[in-house]
Amino acid sequence: SFDCLGEAAQTFEEADAYFKAYQQALEHLATQTYEGDMLGRDSVSIKLSALYPRYEARFWTEIQQRLLPKLLHLLSFAAEAQIPVTFDAEESERLELSLAIFSYLLSHPTLQHYQGLGLAVQAYQKRAPAVIDWLAARAKACHKRIAVRLVKGAYWDSEIKRAQQLALQDYPVFTQKLHTDVCYLVCAKKLLQHGDCFWPQFATHNAHTLAWLHVVANDLGQNFEVQQI
């Protein structure tokens, strides 16, 4: 999975630069010949906040007008070239926004035959199992198989700090690594149990987790992908 390794854009100029970089990445992959299932080929990860400097729910109207057309353009090209695209993870307060955009594009008429749109889900968020259930429902409603990259999460320090600064009663993420590890396994099993809805992609360095995945997937008769980013 190829990633531009960019965080959120701070200006519209930066967002335009990221948009061009994603387009170039897709164009480069399109030149490579590939035979077989589309989900088996190299993919591109897109960070939504890299394409819009005001990636916040309060700017939903602007996002609909300026970000969604960009995403539709990129995904239309990816669909034509049969290249998988995964929306990368964001901070917890952007989860609902990302899910709304994902749902909109998943069911968009222009992309009705595109089976390559995927999403990264962070197991350190307490809502991760519920997100998996929601994605399963959307997959069934749209008659699609969603590629889900299950990760543990990359913003733990900032998530904890932000919750403390806002004096929230609870944290949006688990505060103990053990709890994140358990949640990862719970989410992984959900993905493997619903092979008709998901193509599971696991990004982990935990040897115990990888061994567990092989055992459970073998028992369920399911295949999965170990992702390298």
Structural key phrases:
single chain; 229 residues; alpha/beta
What does this molecule look like?
The chain is of the alpha/beta class and 229 residues long. 48% of the residues lie in helices and 12% in strands. The chain has seven helices and seven strands; from the N terminus they run βαβαβαβαβααβαβ. It has helices at residues 12-30, 60-81, 95-106, 128-142, 156-165, 177-193, 207-220; strands at residues 2-3, 44-46, 85-87, 117-122, 146-151, 198-202, 225-226. A seven-stranded parallel β-sheet has the order 1-2-3-4-5-6-7, covered by helices on one side. α1 (12-30) links the parallel β1 (2-3) and β2. α6 packs parallel to α7 (207-220).
List the helices and strands and how they pair.
Layout: E1 2-3, H1 12-30, E2 44-46, H2 60-81, E3 85-87, H3 95-106, E4 117-122, H4 128-142, E5 146-151, H5 156-165, H6 177-193, E6 198-202, H7 207-220, E7 225-226
Parallel strand pairs: 1-2, 2-3, 3-4, 4-5, 5-6, 6-7
Helix pairs in contact: 1-2, 4-6, 6-7
Gap from first CA to last CA: 5 Å
Pattern of helices and strands: EHEHEHEHEHHEHE
Count of discrete alpha- or pi-helical segments spanning 4 or more residues:
7
Q: Give me the count of strands.
A: 7
Beta-strand residue fraction: 5-15%
Rg result: 17 Å
Low-pLDDT sequence parts: none
Q: How much helix, percentage-wise, in residues? A: 40-55%
Coarse morphology: globular
Structural class: alpha/beta
Oligomeric state: single chain
Integer average pLDDT: 94
